[in-house]
Amino acid sequence: MNLADFDYDLPEALIAQKPAAVRDQARLMIIDRTSGTIRHAVFHSLHQYLQAGDVLVVNNSRVIPARLTGFKATGGRVEVFLLASKHIVTLQQQTWETLLKPAKGLRPGMRLWFADGCEALISSRLSDKKWSLEFTVNVPFADFLEKLGVTPLPPYIKRSEEEKQSPADRERYQTIYAQIPGSVAAPTAGLHFSPAVLSALGAKGIPVAQLTLHVGYGTFSPVQEQHLENHQMEVEQYEISSTAAKTINQAPRTVAVGTTSARTLEAAADELGRLTPGRGSTDLFIYPGYRFKRVDALLTNFHLPKSTLYILACSFAGRDLIREAYRQAIEERYRFYSYGDCMLIV
C-alpha cells in the first residue's frame, strides 16, 4: 500500500493557529460508516450522537513543557526537546532522551547551561537525531520544567518568541481531564471537552473511562517509507486500570477519543476484544486492512496528509469516505489539525 494514496491538498489558511474561543464550540462532523452519510454539528451536542450504554474512552496523559533552551560554553543556543525520562536518580538528577537542535558541533561530554544555575551533561548520542542528557537542577525537575519549559506545540502552529511564553497554550494545549504527566504532544481530540459536555454525557448514561498513553515525538514525525508496510512506529507507554478495563469490557459500544486511545485499546485487546488491565508498550501502526477488535466509534481531529493519524482514520472509515469527509471539511471551511475541529465516526 502506497503512502501517496493518503495525500490531499489543504489551503494553509485552514490550519488552526488558535483553539476555538470556547472548547466545546468547535465544529463536529458526524460520519456514518454504514450509510456513508456526513452531517455537520457543534461539539457541545456530542451526546446527541451517542447512545446510552456507550463508553467514551479518553487518554488522561498530561503534556509536559518539553521544549527548553540551553547554552553551550561558547554561548551558542541549543533547543532541547525532551522525549522520555530514562533514569531518575533524585528529584533533581534525571536522565532524558532528547532531540537537540542545532546538533552540529555537539558531542558527548559537553555541557549545556540553563537559567538559575541548572545544567545538563550530554552523556551519549543515541542515534542520528537522539541524545541522552543527564540533568542536574537545583529544584525538583517538574518545577524546573514548569519555570523554564515551553509547551511543545506542533511545528505548523506558529508562535513568536514572546508568545511561546504565554500561559494561554499551557492551558488550551491540555485536556481538562489531563492527570498523568508524560506526553510531548496533546491527545488533541480531547481538547474539545468541557465540564458541560461531560455532564451531558453522564446524564445520558454514557460513562467515561480513562486510560493513559504518553504521546511521543513520533506523532509529529512524517512517514518516510513509500510502502506503508515498511513504516515503524515509535514505542509509546500505556496503562489501563482495572476499573477502566471492567467498564470498557462491559460496554456494548466503545467510543475511542482520539487515535491515541484507539491505538491503546487495539494494542491491549485480545482477539475477542477484551482488555486486561496493566502497563504495556505499543508500536502498533494501524493502516487499511487492519481488523479493529475493540473500537466501535472514533472521535478524532482532522489530520495532516500522509500522517499515521490520517491513515488510521482511513483504516477505520474507509479511504473513500474519509476523502469525501475531508473534501467537505475544506469546502465548509473547517479548521484543521491540533487546534482545529473534529469528526465523530460511527
What features would you describe in this structure?
The protein is an alpha/beta fold and 346 residues long. It folds into 2 domains: 3-63 and 172-345, QueA-like (3-Layer(aba) Sandwich); 67-149, Thrombin, subunit H (Beta Barrel). The protein has helices at 141-148, 161-164, 167-172, 195-203, 242-250, 258-268, 308-317, 319-331, and strands at residues 27-31, 38-42, 55-59, 61-63, 67-71, 77-90, 93-101, 111-113, 119-125, 130-136, 180-183, 208-213, 236-240, 254-257, 278-282, 297-301, 342-345. The strands form 3 sheets. Strands 2-1-17-16-14-3-12-13-15 form a 9-stranded mixed sheet. The longest helix is centred in the C-terminal third of the chain and has 13 residues, at 319-331.
In brief:
This protein is an alpha/beta fold and 346 residues long. The protein is built from 8 helices and 17 strands. The chain folds into 2 domains: 3-63 and 172-345, QueA-like; 67-149, Beta Barrel (Thrombin, subunit H).
Mean pLDDT: 95
Largest sheet: 9 strands, mixed
As for the number of domains, it is 2
Percent of residues in helices comes to 10-25%
Q: Strand content of the residues, in percent?
A: 25-35%
- Secondary structural class: alpha/beta
How many whole angstroms does the radius of gyration measure? Answer: 21 Å
SSE pattern: EEEEEEEEEEHHHEHEEHEHEEHHE
Number of strands: 17
**What is the CATH fold-level name of the largest domain?**
QueA-like
